Protein backbone atom coordinates (compact mmCIF):
# COMPACT_ATOMS: atom_id res chain seq x y z
CA UNK A 1 0.00 0.00 0.00
CA UNK A 2 1.17 3.53 -0.68
CA UNK A 3 2.16 5.81 2.21
CA UNK A 4 1.90 9.59 2.03
CA UNK A 5 3.63 11.96 4.45
CA UNK A 6 1.60 14.82 5.89
CA UNK A 7 1.85 17.24 8.79
CA UNK A 8 0.34 16.40 12.18
CA UNK A 9 -0.58 20.04 12.57
CA UNK A 10 -0.27 23.31 10.65
CA UNK A 11 -1.63 26.78 11.47
CA UNK A 12 -5.22 27.49 10.35
CA UNK A 13 -4.13 29.57 7.32
CA UNK A 14 -2.51 26.45 5.86
CA UNK A 15 -5.07 23.84 6.89
CA UNK A 16 -6.73 22.42 3.79
CA UNK A 17 -3.96 23.74 1.55
CA UNK A 18 -1.01 21.52 2.49
CA UNK A 19 0.33 19.87 -0.63
CA UNK A 20 -0.30 16.30 0.49
CA UNK A 21 -3.92 17.19 -0.39
CA UNK A 22 -3.08 16.87 -4.10
CA UNK A 23 -1.74 13.39 -3.57
CA UNK A 24 -4.64 12.28 -1.39
CA UNK A 25 -7.08 13.64 -4.00
CA UNK A 26 -5.35 11.78 -6.83
CA UNK A 27 -5.42 8.56 -4.80
CA UNK A 28 -9.11 9.07 -4.06
CA UNK A 29 -9.89 9.69 -7.74
CA UNK A 30 -7.93 6.57 -8.63
CA UNK A 31 -9.65 4.53 -5.93
CA UNK A 32 -6.29 3.46 -4.51
CA UNK A 33 -6.00 2.81 -0.77
CA UNK A 34 -3.24 4.62 1.09
CA UNK A 35 -1.92 5.19 4.56
CA UNK A 36 -0.58 8.40 6.03
CA UNK A 37 2.64 9.04 7.93
CA UNK A 38 2.00 12.13 10.05
CA UNK A 39 5.15 14.07 10.82
CA UNK A 40 6.14 17.04 12.98
CA UNK A 41 9.00 19.55 12.86
CA UNK A 42 11.42 17.14 14.51
CA UNK A 43 10.85 14.42 11.92
CA UNK A 44 10.91 17.03 9.15
CA UNK A 45 14.41 18.10 10.17
CA UNK A 46 15.74 14.58 10.74
CA UNK A 47 18.40 13.01 8.50
CA UNK A 48 16.10 10.01 7.89
CA UNK A 49 13.31 12.20 6.52
CA UNK A 50 15.78 14.28 4.49
CA UNK A 51 16.81 11.05 2.76
CA UNK A 52 13.22 10.79 1.54
CA UNK A 53 12.63 14.51 0.88
CA UNK A 54 15.81 16.55 0.50
CA UNK A 55 14.04 19.79 1.46
CA UNK A 56 12.24 18.38 4.50
CA UNK A 57 8.82 19.09 3.01
CA UNK A 58 5.61 17.14 2.57
CA UNK A 59 4.42 15.22 0.66
CA UNK A 60 6.54 12.12 0.20
CA UNK A 61 5.06 9.02 -1.40
CA UNK A 62 6.47 5.61 -0.51
CA UNK A 63 5.41 2.55 -2.49
CA UNK A 64 7.20 -0.81 -2.29
CA UNK A 65 10.65 0.74 -1.90
CA UNK A 66 9.99 3.52 -4.39
CA UNK A 67 10.27 6.97 -2.81
CA UNK A 68 8.93 10.04 -4.59
CA UNK A 69 8.76 13.68 -3.60
CA UNK A 70 7.36 16.79 -5.36
CA UNK A 71 3.58 16.78 -5.46
CA UNK A 72 3.55 17.13 -9.26
CA UNK A 73 5.71 14.06 -9.77
CA UNK A 74 3.66 12.09 -7.27
CA UNK A 75 0.32 13.03 -8.82
CA UNK A 76 1.68 12.10 -12.24
CA UNK A 77 2.85 8.74 -10.90
CA UNK A 78 -0.61 8.02 -9.52
CA UNK A 79 -2.35 9.37 -12.63
CA UNK A 80 -0.40 6.92 -14.75
CA UNK A 81 -2.27 4.14 -12.97
CA UNK A 82 -5.71 5.60 -13.64
CA UNK A 83 -7.65 6.59 -16.76
CA UNK A 84 -9.86 8.89 -14.71
CA UNK A 85 -6.83 11.14 -14.28
CA UNK A 86 -4.98 10.63 -17.58
CA UNK A 87 -6.97 9.76 -20.73
CA UNK A 88 -6.08 6.54 -22.54
CA UNK A 89 -5.15 8.17 -25.85
CA UNK A 90 -1.61 9.49 -26.07
CA UNK A 91 -2.56 12.98 -27.25
CA UNK A 92 -5.08 13.34 -24.42
CA UNK A 93 -2.48 12.17 -21.92
CA UNK A 94 0.08 14.62 -23.21
CA UNK A 95 -2.41 17.50 -22.97
CA UNK A 96 -3.32 16.54 -19.41
CA UNK A 97 0.35 16.42 -18.43
CA UNK A 98 0.82 19.81 -20.09
CA UNK A 99 -1.87 21.28 -17.84
CA UNK A 100 -0.36 19.66 -14.77
CA UNK A 101 2.91 21.44 -15.55
CA UNK A 102 1.09 24.68 -16.43
CA UNK A 103 -0.64 24.62 -13.05
CA UNK A 104 2.71 24.38 -11.28
CA UNK A 105 4.99 26.33 -13.57
CA UNK A 106 2.74 29.05 -15.00
CA UNK A 107 0.04 29.57 -12.37
CA UNK A 108 1.37 28.48 -8.97
CA UNK A 109 4.50 30.46 -9.71
CA UNK A 110 2.44 33.70 -9.85
CA UNK A 111 0.10 32.76 -6.98
CA UNK A 112 2.70 31.72 -4.43
CA UNK A 113 4.31 35.19 -4.17
CA UNK A 114 0.94 36.65 -3.17
CA UNK A 115 0.51 33.98 -0.50
CA UNK A 116 3.98 34.76 0.82
CA UNK A 117 3.45 38.52 0.85
CA UNK A 118 0.04 38.21 2.57
CA UNK A 119 0.54 35.27 4.91
CA UNK A 120 4.18 35.46 5.94
CA UNK A 121 5.38 39.05 5.48
CA UNK A 122 2.22 41.21 5.60
CA UNK A 123 3.72 43.67 8.11
CA UNK A 124 6.97 44.20 6.20
CA UNK A 125 7.34 47.45 4.30
CA UNK A 126 8.82 45.68 1.27
CA UNK A 127 5.79 43.37 1.14
CA UNK A 128 3.38 46.31 1.10
CA UNK A 129 5.34 47.85 -1.77
CA UNK A 130 5.58 44.56 -3.66
CA UNK A 131 1.91 43.50 -3.38
CA UNK A 132 0.33 45.61 -6.15
CA UNK A 133 2.85 44.34 -8.72
CA UNK A 134 2.31 40.75 -7.61
CA UNK A 135 -1.47 41.13 -7.93
CA UNK A 136 -1.15 42.75 -11.35
CA UNK A 137 0.99 39.92 -12.77
CA UNK A 138 -1.30 37.34 -11.23
CA UNK A 139 -4.45 38.91 -12.69
CA UNK A 140 -2.90 39.04 -16.12
CA UNK A 141 -2.08 35.32 -15.96
CA UNK A 142 -5.50 34.41 -14.58
CA UNK A 143 -7.15 36.35 -17.39
CA UNK A 144 -5.20 34.25 -19.87
CA UNK A 145 -6.23 31.06 -18.11
CA UNK A 146 -9.87 32.17 -18.07
CA UNK A 147 -9.66 32.94 -21.80
CA UNK A 148 -8.52 29.38 -22.46
CA UNK A 149 -11.13 27.84 -20.22
CA UNK A 150 -13.97 29.85 -21.79
CA UNK A 151 -17.28 28.23 -20.95
CA UNK A 152 -15.80 24.74 -20.71
CA UNK A 153 -16.23 22.55 -17.67
CA UNK A 154 -12.58 21.50 -17.57
CA UNK A 155 -9.31 22.50 -19.23
CA UNK A 156 -9.66 19.65 -21.74
CA UNK A 157 -12.61 17.45 -22.73
CA UNK A 158 -12.90 15.77 -19.35
CA UNK A 159 -11.51 16.10 -15.81
CA UNK A 160 -7.81 15.12 -15.67
CA UNK A 161 -4.80 15.34 -13.37
CA UNK A 162 -4.24 18.76 -14.94
CA UNK A 163 -7.53 20.02 -13.48
CA UNK A 164 -6.74 18.41 -10.15
CA UNK A 165 -3.47 20.30 -9.96
CA UNK A 166 -4.94 23.56 -11.29
CA UNK A 167 -7.76 23.51 -8.74
CA UNK A 168 -5.35 22.95 -5.83
CA UNK A 169 -3.25 25.85 -7.07
CA UNK A 170 -6.23 28.22 -7.43
CA UNK A 171 -7.30 27.32 -3.90
CA UNK A 172 -4.15 29.01 -2.57
CA UNK A 173 -5.98 32.30 -3.29
CA UNK A 174 -8.72 31.55 -0.76
CA UNK A 175 -7.56 34.32 1.61
CA UNK A 176 -8.17 36.91 -1.15
CA UNK A 177 -11.05 38.03 -3.38
CA UNK A 178 -8.93 37.80 -6.54
CA UNK A 179 -10.99 34.98 -8.07
CA UNK A 180 -14.15 37.08 -7.76
CA UNK A 181 -12.82 38.98 -10.76
CA UNK A 182 -12.75 35.72 -12.74
CA UNK A 183 -16.19 34.12 -12.28
CA UNK A 184 -15.60 31.27 -14.73
CA UNK A 185 -12.36 30.31 -12.98
CA UNK A 186 -14.03 30.52 -9.60
CA UNK A 187 -16.86 28.26 -10.82
CA UNK A 188 -14.29 25.88 -12.34
CA UNK A 189 -12.39 25.63 -9.04
CA UNK A 190 -15.65 25.04 -7.17
CA UNK A 191 -16.69 22.38 -9.72
CA UNK A 192 -13.44 20.54 -9.07
CA UNK A 193 -13.80 20.94 -5.30
CA UNK A 194 -17.32 19.50 -5.46
CA UNK A 195 -15.96 16.14 -6.62
CA UNK A 196 -16.51 13.50 -3.93
CA UNK A 197 -12.86 12.42 -4.18
CA UNK A 198 -11.73 15.95 -3.34
CA UNK A 199 -14.10 16.12 -0.39
CA UNK A 200 -12.77 12.83 0.99
CA UNK A 201 -9.17 13.98 0.57
CA UNK A 202 -9.85 17.31 2.27
CA UNK A 203 -11.65 15.67 5.20
CA UNK A 204 -8.73 13.26 5.63
CA UNK A 205 -6.16 16.06 5.68
CA UNK A 206 -8.22 18.12 8.13
CA UNK A 207 -8.97 15.29 10.59
CA UNK A 208 -5.65 15.36 12.51
CA UNK A 209 -5.78 19.16 12.80
CA UNK A 210 -9.02 18.84 14.71
CA UNK A 211 -7.45 16.61 17.38
CA UNK A 212 -6.30 18.29 20.62
CA UNK A 213 -2.58 19.10 20.34
CA UNK A 214 -0.25 17.17 22.65
N1 LIG B 1 7.41 21.77 -4.63
C1 LIG B 1 7.01 20.99 -3.48
C2 LIG B 1 6.61 21.96 -2.40
C3 LIG B 1 6.22 21.22 -1.14
C4 LIG B 1 5.88 22.21 -0.04
O1 LIG B 1 6.02 23.44 -0.18
N2 LIG B 1 5.44 21.65 1.08
C5 LIG B 1 5.13 22.48 2.21
C6 LIG B 1 3.73 22.21 2.70
S1 LIG B 1 2.54 22.70 1.52
C7 LIG B 1 6.09 22.16 3.31
O2 LIG B 1 6.40 21.02 3.55
N3 LIG B 1 6.54 23.21 4.00
C8 LIG B 1 7.42 23.08 5.10
C9 LIG B 1 8.79 23.57 4.79
O3 LIG B 1 9.06 23.97 3.65
O4 LIG B 1 9.61 23.53 5.71
C10 LIG B 1 5.87 20.07 -3.84
O5 LIG B 1 5.03 20.46 -4.65
O6 LIG B 1 5.79 18.95 -3.30
Automatic annotation (TrEMBL):
Protein name: Glutathione S-transferase domain protein
CDD domains in UniProt: GST_C_8 (cd03207), GST_N_GTT1_like (cd03046)
Domain GST C-terminal: 89-209
SUPFAM superfamilies: GST C-terminal domain-like, Thioredoxin-like
InterPro entries: Glutathione-S-Trfase_C-like (IPR010987), Glutathione-S-Trfase_C_sf (IPR036282), Glutathione_S-Trfase (IPR040079), Glutathione_S-Trfase_N (IPR004045), Thioredoxin-like_sf (IPR036249)
Highest taxon of source: Bacteria
Residues in GST N-terminal domain copies: 7-86
